[in-house]
Task: structure prediction
Amino acid sequence: MAKSDNFTRELPAGYRLVKTVDAGDKRFGLLMNLWAFLLTALVGVGGFLLKFRGDLGSAFPDLGNIWLFEGWLFGILVALILYLVLHELTHGAVYRLLTGEKLTFGVKLTCAYCGVPNVYVTRKTALLSLLAPFTVFSAAFLVPFFLLSGPLSSAFLVLFAFHFGGCVGDLYDTILLLFRLKGKLLMRDTGPMQTFYILSDGENDG
Result:
């Protein structure tokens, strides 16, 4: 049985399934997407009020110039699509670095995903992969949001708001790993589904 401090290819004896998170499940996926929408709206409105004090004129391109405004929107749309790809690649880069295993990528109706389905990863590996996109892109979007002004600043606010809301699944799994699932743990991540296993004797993680 291949094993390291980061993963194992087979589930060791004594581990039991304690939690399944399936973003492909319609009910759960709908709930996560509702939370994502709420977080996106709250972050977007909060950031707008913080930076622009409700001044629409300073936040957006000239609303009387339809071509300029549409170009601004198109640029954000392209950036969001690129971000979606880079978000999943960031998950994958961490998984690849820590396990060297084959990755899986895909898109379902309720989510885009990256997984490493052929192994069981440790709590540390799971957390590093889950939090990598949140950390990297929060910095990438927040720094220019605060440093820039006008429509460029608001564009990065839109990107950050969608990023924050889009991380709801990663943050949910992170909360489980940090606060809910105690003991020595392994996680299998197929992409849309994560299954969590705890060692029955309740030993703490090393």
The chain has one domain: 7-199. The two ends are 19 Å apart (CA to CA).
